[in-house]
TrEMBL record, chain A:
This is Uncharacterized protein.
Automatic annotation (TrEMBL), chain B:
This is Uncharacterized protein. It comes from the Eukaryota. It comes from Xylaria curta.
Length: 899, 543
């Protein structure tokens, strides 16, 4: 190693090839050809040498470099060389940044106003001038595209070209091409490169391609002049303008052409009534021919289909019979799957959590596993039927008056999938047909009629609907409307209301209809309570109306039913007929098999409460209980859930109605002592009749009727127990549940009772008894010891501390996550604080320095001025003195001469 | 009041007597006006206090007080009489002193006779609804004054007799607010009144003819005695003395032990009245909390409690807590306690209104981990059996209770998880199924073989119609990760609370609606259509 610094510098310069022996001309040219690469190399070499020779530019670890083993991360870059920082650079950068921000602020202090330069990239030093111009141009282009309907901006796909190249900005801007971007700047390029460029520009435009290739390969710093760029831009915009003009003309042509064709289509679309009427005029010969009418309707339908076909997507092809059947089967299967899942209560996203919660809950209702919270994320497609349906506008009918036939008023199950076309919908209707065809048909007919001849339909319904001035939204309104009508007319009235206030007809109809559906539920209750023998056919049809409305307004109807349930809860043990009808309606409108249901669950609880708490005293009570029992079984039929209260009540009925008292206890249920006179006696001749619902509220008129009702109740209870035994046959405790039943039955079949009961009933008892016997033995055979706890064994909590494989002493292994987080945050805060203080200090330093500099500058300027003035004055004074001296000398000389 | 004044006024007494009748007539003439009456009474009172000569005015006041037609005047004169007697007592005019002349002795005796007459009047007024409250206050004040002045301080005695009369009057009629007032103002506050009141009560009750207990008397005494919910813990809690008693006597009154003794005797006297079933229930309901703590010898309750416990039904349930108290504090050895407890688990227990109380106690009785598993499993199995017929509110309490027992007695978990070990046993079960080894009719919980049985009942309840009940029933088949369930969360439920809980949630999400609209709901389907009628149509005839 050479001793002196200078010698070492020279040696390293030579080593890097920066200086060397004189090169021949040939060698120099070669070097020049390599050009840029060489200069880069040279600059890098110079940099490294500079770094090497300035020991204060780096910050090193005070105790020398770290050993490799202390860190598991490989050291890279500076760190490899043991450099931990570059204070000089950092300082310079900091200084520069301050000059850019703080200094400007300082200078602007106490000043207001000024001009803000918002030109793109004006203050961005990193952009070259060309880049700036390009960006501004792009910005301008983009800002033009404001209006969606600006036809002028619709560029043809080819777009503008320049020299055969697309000028579109979607891919790559011309200005962003490598040839324009001169990353080094023109000043860094060497002389030879510049001359070469100059030469190339002289060449013809035909070898642009070549040039481009060359540029990509070896000539990155070729650069267009500003003039060239502007020329190009101007040319481009001119071309663009011309193109737009041409496009506009073409559009105009097309539109005119379309306008001419449109009159035909319009006549098809909008002049249907006229068409019809003209057809009607033709058919005046047989105006009331039904075949004719149907044909017209068919024609109308076909026409709409045609109109829709235009927009139909190719995927909407007509399905074959098998496909439709297949789809139906799939849909039904899907629905059944969903029902099963709901039945198992699987919508609970985290049953474990809720259970924990429920156990923790110290409030009065610890086990209210709400079905609400858990179901939140489950999306019931059934519920959102209305929304998935395309609106009339989507279907191509802009006119609301143009009533769509397919939009069946019964929001049928077809709302599972959006209906795109008529035939698809008709298939959905077909599928519905087997369930409720005659129910919907009337409505459909009417809507169709409405669609074709609205006024005519209106005429036909006027006799009933003329009284409907507004949609009945309270029970009183509905009652006032329906007052004069016989009960058979009421379904028709409801239909009318539903048609007149169909949601499609006006926007507020939806809420009106929702209110109406609430009223219907109330009306259901009212109507069934109104007389001792309510019109069940009407009630049935109202329930079905409510059911179909429930598909559109599930929340409203559910809330109304819950209100009714709430009312019923207060008089649970003495329900009216209306309550029974409401419970029936709930059981048919809502799926009773669901594990959690906002309506079903409380309704079932009410039924069970009746069965559990009612102590039957009169025949009516027993009939009511039997009805409640059948409701309970109706609710639990699909889910096969167990209802202890039903068993208790039925057993109590058997024990209470039996002609004699059972000798021993029948089972573990609380047995109530019947009131005297309720036991069936001397009914051996009685005929077994089917129980009537009205008996639930009206006490029997005569002794004989009383007896026959009691016998019928006993019979019904037997049937109910029969059904229940089928439902619960697979339950693990079937034996315990039904052994009391067998005991009660054998008591009924015993001599003392046998003589008092009709033989048909005894036959039934015996039959049920033998059936239960076999079922009990079957159940016994099927019974296995419980093995409920085949769970994965719980791990014993370990006391061994966790071993870190890759322990890092710098890291904190805090087991408490919150605390670790907090510590991290605190450390960060401390660091930031220190950094901020340092920055502030540096800022203050900088400002002081700047002020000093300004002051010095000012002082220097002042000094200079002062000196200049002094010098000036002195100069002037000197001249005057000289002149005086000269004058004096001259005078002296003159005086001498004279003297 | 200084006695010299009385000496002086004594001389003038004769002179003033003749004036009195004229005054009286004058006053009587203005009989109509109430205020005049009251003014007259005040005047009379004033005159009495001014001079001994006017003592005869007392008789006039008595006449007023006894007059039936004007209760307000009667009340007013009674108050005024009370004032008179209080003053007289305070001035010592009612006590015989040494060296008094015979005439004076006669006067004192006359006054004493009037005083006792007044007392009788007060006691009789206590039995009248509207004035009872005032009479009570007056008599209590008189009682206080009497003790303080009757004799010299060293040997003053509590007027037990008067108090007894007061209490006798109080309990003979049922004026609840007066009784309440007596309890709150005197019984609760003053140790001596409490002490002597207990004494008086036990005296009254023991003298009472046992054959004829009228329920009114029982209820009044019961109310008086059960007024104290807690027993005073220390002497400080006993309260102060109403009358100043000599040290010796006050120490007796202020001793906690003595108080308890008196109360105990009062209670025992009440229990001896042969209460009927309803009364027994009332007694048993507060037995452990309010009655038994008063007893210095709770063993005395033993007969009553065991009798009640053996009576069966809800009485046994209620007696249970009392018996338990005795077992806990007195180490009462109840033979076959668990046997008896097991027999209480009858079909009505889950439907009884004392269910939660009973389950709480049952929880306590079976809390020990030292109980044999066979016994615990009998209880578990029995309750599981019963819950097959129980209301949901009972099931939700029983299941966590079973869980807690399982955690305490892991041996019992065989009831939910029993793997057949030998291939023979497995084959036997496969071929013949399994009979429940549990013997329902066995009375001895150690012999029921419940430990060999399984809880099929709970598995059945997992498909209970109420979803929450079903979910709770599932905790027994889940892994037992939870340490225990807090029974208090599950005990107090009813159909009402369950329905309310359901209805209080609002409907946020559109509820699921049945997909198919049934063709027929009430009326039978056409047989042609082939659609099956629903259950209700099959069984019922509409129309």
């Amino acid at each position: 190693m050479p001793g002196s610094q200078l010698k070492r510098l020279k040696a390293s310069l030579r080593e890097q090839g920066v200086i060397g022996p004189q090169q021949s001309k040939k060698q120099r040219r070669k070097v020049a050809q390599n050009g840029k690469v060489n200069t880069n190399k040279r600059a890098a070499a110079l940099d490294s040498i500079r770094e090497e020779f300035n020991p204060f530019d780096f910050k090193h670890n005070a105790r020398g470099p770290k050993f490799q083993v202390t860190s598991n991360r490989p050291a890279l870059g500076d760190a490899a060389k043991g450099i931990t920082g570059r204070p000089g650079d950092a300082k310079a950068i900091g200084e520069e940044r301050r000059r850019q921000t703080l200094l400007i602020e300082m200078n602007r202090r106490n000043k207001t106003g000024g001009i803000r330069d918002q030109r793109f990239g004006e203050n961005d030093a990193s952009m070259t001038y060309e880049e700036k111009m390009a960006q501004r141009f792009v910005r301008e282009k983009q800002s033009h595209k404001t209006s969606l309907f600006d036809l002028e901006d619709d560029e043809p796909i080819d777009g503008l070209t320049h020299m055969g190249k697309s000028l579109s900005f979607s891919e790559k801007d011309d200005f962003e091409e490598t040839d324009l971007l001169d990353p080094e700047g023109s000043d860094s390029g060497n002389e030879s490169g510049g001359s070469q460029r100059g030469l190339k520009r002289v060449r013809g435009a035909d070898d642009v391609q070549d040039r481009d290739d060359e540029n990509i390969e070896g000539e990155p710093e070729r650069k267009k002049t500003k003039q060239e760029i502007y020329k190009e831009i101007i040319a481009k915009s001119k071309l663009h303008k011309a193109e737009r003009q041409a496009q506009k003309d073409a559009d105009e042509d097309l539109r005119e052409e379309l306008d001419q064709e449109l009159s035909d289509i319009q006549s098809l679309l909008f002049l249907k009534p006229k068409l019809q009427s003209s057809e009607g005029n033709e058919a005046t010969v047989k105006p009331d021919d039904p075949g004719r009418e149907r044909m017209e309707r068919d024609y109308d339908l076909r026409l709409r289909q045609l109109a829709m076909d235009r927009r139909a997507k190719p995927s909407d092809r007509t399905l074959t019979e098998e496909e439709i059947a297949q789809r139906d089967v799939e849909k039904l299967k899907e629905l059944e799957d969903k029902r099963q899942r709901r039945m198992r209560g699987e919508e609970l996203s985290d049953s474990e959590d809720t259970k924990e919660e429920d156990a923790h809950d110290t409030q009065s209702a610890p086990k209210n596993l709400g079905w609400f919270g858990e179901e939140e994320e489950e999306n019931f497609k059934l519920g959102s039927g209305i929304r998935t349906r395309p609106t009339a506008t989507e279907l191509g009918f802009d006119d609301e008056d143009d009533f769509i036939v397919e939009d069946d008023l019964i929001a049928s199950g077809s709302d599972l999938e959006p209906i795109e076309s008529e035939d698809e919908n008709s298939s959905a209707e077909d599928e519905e047909d087997d369930q409720d065809d005659e129910f919907t048909k009337g409505l459909l007919d009417e809507t169709e009629a409405r669609g074709t001849a609205f006024t005519k339909e209106f005429d036909s319904t006027r006799n009933e609907t003329s009284t409907i001035s507004s949609c009945p939204e309270t029970l009183e309104q509905l009652l006032s409307i329906s007052r004069g009508l016989p009960s058979e007319q009421i379904p028709a009235l409801i239909q009318k209301v539903r048609i007149l206030y169909h949601p499609k007809l006006a926007s507020e109809n939806k809420s009106k209809l929702a209110g109406f559906s609430r009223v219907l539920v109330q009306y259901l209750f009212h109507l069934s309570n109104a007389s001792s023998s309510p019109p069940f056919a009407t009630l049935e049809s109202i329930i079905r109306h409510v059911h179909s409305l429930a598909k559109s307004f599930p929340v409203e109807i559910a809330e109304e039913f819950r209100l009714q349930i709430d009312n019923l809860a207060s008089r649970c043990l003495s329900p009216t007929l209306g309550d029974l009808v409401i419970l029936m309606a709930i059981g048919s409108i809502f799926p009773p098999s669901d594990a959690f249901h906002p309506v079903i669950t409380p309704a079932m609880l009410l039924i069970a409460r009746y069965l559990g708490q009612k102590i039957s005293k009169t025949t009516t009570d027993f009939v009511q209980g039997a009805f409640m029992g059948s409701l309970a079984l109706h609710y639990l039929k699909l889910s096969q859930r167990f209802c202890p209260e039903f068993m208790n009540f039925s057993l109590n009925t058997l024990a209470s109605l039996a002609p004699t008292r059972p000798a021993k206890k029948l089972g573990n249920f609380p047995q109530h002592e019947p009131v005297p006179g309720i036991r069936i006696t001397g009914a051996s001749e009685a005929e077994i009749k089917k129980l009537k619902v009205v008996h639930c509220i009206t006490p029997p008129s005569s002794e004989l009727e009383d007896l026959s009702i009691r016998v019928a109740t006993l019979e019904t209870t037997l049937q109910l127990l029969d059904t229940a035994s089928l439902l619960y046959a697979s339950k693990p405790s079937f034996i315990e549940s039904f052994e009391p039943v067998v005991l009660a039955l054998s008591h009924l079949a015993k001599g003392s009772c046998k003589s008092q009961l009709p033989t048909a009933l005894i036959d039934h008892v015996v039959k049920l008894q033998t059936k239960l016997h076999t079922m009990l033995t079957m159940s016994k055979l099927a019974r296995r010891p419980l093995e409920l706890h085949h769970h994965r064994p719980l791990a014993i909590k370990t006391a061994i501390p966790k071993f870190e494989d890759q322990f890092d002493p710098d890291r904190h292994y805090d087991a408490d996550k919150d605390r670790a987080e907090l510590a991290k945050l605190k450390a960060e805060h401390k660091k930031e604080r220190k950094g901020a203080m340092r920055e502030l200090r540096k800022d203050a330093n900088f400002m002081a320095r700047e002020k000093l500099r300004v002051k010095k500058q000012k002082d220097a300027a002042y000094e200079k001025k002062y000196k200049r003035l002094v010098a000036e004055i002195q100069g002037e004074e000197g001249r005057e003195a000289n002149a005086y001296e000269r004058e004096k000398q001259a005078r002296k000389r003159a005086a001498k001469r004279q003297g | 009041m200084p006695s010299t004044v009385d000496e002086a006024s004594l001389k003038r007494k004769r002179a003033k007597v003749p004036e009195k009748p004229s005054k009286r007539t004058k006053h009587e003439s203005s009989d109509e006006e109430e205020e005049d009456r009251q003014a007259e009474i005040l005047l009379l009172e004033d005159e009495i206090l001014k001079s001994k000569k006017n003592y005869n005015n007392i008789t006039v006041l008595f006449e007023f007080a006894k007059s039936q037609h004007d209760p307000e005047v009667a009340l007013f004169s009674m108050v005024s009489l009370c004032r008179v007697f209080l003053r007289l007592l305070a001035s010592g005019n009612l006590s015989r002193k040494a060296g008094q002349s015979e005439r004076e002795t006669v006067v004192v005796q006359w006054l004493k006779a009037r005083l006792s007459e007044y007392k009788k009047l007060l006691v009789s007024v206590l039995c009248e609804e509207q004035s009872a409250s005032t009479a009570l206050t007056l008599s209590m004040r008189l009682l206080k004054a009497e003790t303080q002045t009757t004799s010299d301080k060293s040997e003053s005695t509590f007027p037990k007799l008067f108090l007894k009369e007061i209490i006798g009057a109080l309990i003979s009629e049922r004026f609840e607010d007066v009784q309440q007032e007596f309890c709150e103002k005197y019984l609760a506050e003053y140790a001596d009144i409490r002490f002597y009141a207990f004494q008086a009560l036990s005296d009254i009750l023991s003298n009472h003819n046992t054959s004829s207990v009228d329920s009114g008397l029982f209820d009044s005494v019961f109310d008086l005695l059960s007024f104290f919910e807690g027993v005073p813990e220390s002497t400080e809690d006993l309260g102060s003395l109403y009358v100043d008693l000599p040290k010796k006597k006050s120490s007796l009154v202020l001793s906690l032990h003595q108080q308890k003794k008196q109360c105990q005797s009062a209670w025992i006297a009440l229990l001896k009245l042969n209460p009927d079933r309803q009364q027994r229930k009332r007694l048993l309901e507060i037995m452990a909390e309010s009655i038994a703590p008063w007893f210095t010898q709770p063993e005395l309750l033993m007969d009553f409690l065991t009798d009640s416990y053996n009576a069966g039904g809800s009485l046994s349930l209620l007696a249970l807590s009392g018996v338990f108290y005795l077992i806990q504090t007195r180490n009462l050895d109840y033979p076959l306690f668990y046997h008896k407890l097991y027999s209480l688990l009858d079909d009505g227990i889950l439907h009884s209104k004392h269910r939660s109380m009973f389950l709480r106690l049952l929880d306590t009785f079976l809390a020990s981990t030292h109980l044999p598993a066979a016994l615990v499993s009998s209880f578990i199995k029995r309750l599981a059996r019963l819950s097959l017929n129980g209301p949901p509110s009972a099931i939700v309490a029983v299941i966590p209770w079973i869980y807690n027992l399982f955690k305490k007695h892991p041996l019992c978990t065989f009831m939910v998880h029993r793997v057949m070990r030998t291939p023979e046993a497995k084959a036997a079960v496969e071929s013949e199924g399994m009979d429940d080894p549990f013997d329902e009719n066995e009375d001895d919980p150690m012999q029921t073989k419940a430990i060999d049985s399984c809880l099929w009942e709970v598995v059945q309840l997992q498909s209970h119609y109420h979803p929450n009940v079903a979910t709770i029933a599932k905790i027994l088949s889940d892994q037992f990760t939870k340490q225990w369930y807090n029974m208090e969360d599950f005990l107090d439920h009813s159909y009402n609370s369950l329905i309310e809980a359901e209805l209080s949630k609002s409907v946020k999400k559109p509820p699921v609606v049945e997909f198919m609209i049934p063709k027929r709901i009430f009326l039978p389907n056409d047989p042609v259509s082939g659609v099956e009628d629903n259950l209700i149509i099959k069984l019922w005839e509409f129309q």
